[in-house]
Amino acid sequence: MLWHPSQDPADLPAELQPLTVVPEPQRLIRTLGADDSIYQSLKRQPLDEAQVTELIAAIKPVFNLRSDSRPLDRYTLVLDPAGQVQRFEYLSQREPERPLVVDRQAGRLVGRRETLPLEKRIEPIEVRIVDNMSNAIANAGEGQELTDQIADEIFGSVINFTKDLRRGDRLGIVCEKYYQNGRFIRYGEVLLAKYDGAEVSKLGVYYKDPEGRKSYYDGLGNSLKRMFMNYPVPFRGINSHFNAARFHPVLKKTRPHLGTDYAAGQGTLVWASAGGRVVRAGWDGGGYGNLVEIDHGNGFRTRYGHLSKVSVRVGQKVDQKTPVGLVGATGLATGPHLHFEMLKGGRQINPESVNHDALGAPLPKNYLADFAAQREAYLSRLAGGTQLAVHTGSMADGAVAE
C-alpha cells in the first residue's frame, strides 16, 4: 500500500502508523568523594535548588544525612525527559543491606529504607604477617574493613602495630560475614582474634553480657579497653614518631616533634582517644591549623591537629571514639595527616607508651562461665576451620549455632 502526503496518517493501518519515540529517563550514577556530602553532590547535578531541597526533605525522615553517609557511598539519580527527579537510590558502605530509596508518588517525593534478606556465615580466617597486617589480611582475600576492626576495635589499645609485628607472626580470626545471593555484602562482628607473634601474643574475644553490654576481652575475661586508644584514626601507619630532634619538612630545620603523625587521607574520620571535655576547637592561628584539644582529667590532655574540619565545640563532653573532626593539611603541614599529641601535667609525652602495662577491667565473676563457654566455641571454630551458614532475614544478633 502506498501512502500519499495528502492522506491523514490516522487513516493508515496500525502497522504503518508513524513510530512515536519515547525519550529514555536519564540515569546518573555518582560516588561521594572525601569531604563530600549528599547535598553538595546533588548541587553539582543538573537540578535546580527547588528539586535539591525537595529531595533532601524526602530523605531526612528516614536517613541521617550526617552520620549515615560516608565517602565512597554511591547513588543513582533518575530524571524524566523534563529533568524532574523520579527516583533516587542510595547505597551506603556502612549498611549496604539497607538501601535508601526515594520515589515520586502522587506528584511528591517519598523516602523509605529497604531491608534486604542476608545470609550470615561464621567463617575462620588464618593469615601470616609478611610486612604489615593490612597486606596480610588483603592477601587472604579479605577487605580493609576487617583490618580496621582488628586494629581499632579489638587490639587498638594493646598492640603497637608499628613496633610489635614481625615477619612470620600469625593472626587467626573468627568473624561474621553477610552475603546476598552468594555475593559478599559486609562484615558483622569479629567474634575472636588471636595474634601469635614473636614480640606479642594477644587473644581478643567478643562477649555480649546478659545485660546487653558488648566488648572485647582477653582469654581470662579482662577488658581489652584502656583509658586511651593507641590510634585516633583508622590505622594506616605512622609518618613521624615522637622525637626530641626531628628535621621539620616545612621549616627546614631540626626541632622537637612532640607528637605522632598518623598517615591518613584527606577527610578521614578522627576520633577522641579517650573520654573527656573539649577545651579547644577551631583555628589555632599557628602550626596546628584547625585543632581540637580534650581534657581527660588526672592531668591528661590530647591534641588533634591539621584538621580539615572540626566536629565538636568547646565545653562538649565526648566519649572514647567520638568523632572530633576530619583529617586535613591545615597549618604547617606538607600534606594530609593527623598530628596527635598527648600531654601529662602540661608537658608532651610519648603517646605510644601511655598504655604500657595497663590492665583492663575484669568481667563480673558471675559472667565468667558463660564467657568461657563462648571463648571455647570460637577457638574450636578457628581450630576446625569449618564455615557455618545462618540464613537470616534481619540483622538481629544471634548465638553461634552448632
Question: Could you provide a short overview of the structure?
Answer:
With 402 residues, this protein is mostly beta strands.
The CATH topology of the largest domain turns out to be Nuclear Transport Factor 2, Chain: A
Give the total of domains. 3
**CATH architecture call of the largest domain:** Roll
Order of helices and strands: EHHEEEEEHHEEEEEEEEEEEEEEEEHE
The CATH class of the largest domain is identified as Alpha Beta
| N-C termini distance | 76 Å
Which sheet architecture does the biggest sheet show?
A: 10 strands, antiparallel
The number of distinct helices, counting runs of at least 4 residues, comes to 5
Mean pLDDT over the residues:
85
How much strand?
35-45%
**Helical proportion?**
10-25%
Number of strands: 23
- What is Rg? 27 Å
Q: Characterize the overall form.
A: globular
Q: Structural class, please?
A: mainly beta
> Residue ranges: pLDDT <50 for 5 or more in a row?
245-254, 388-402
Which descriptors would you attach to this protein?
402 residues, mainly beta, Nuclear Transport Factor 2, Chain: A
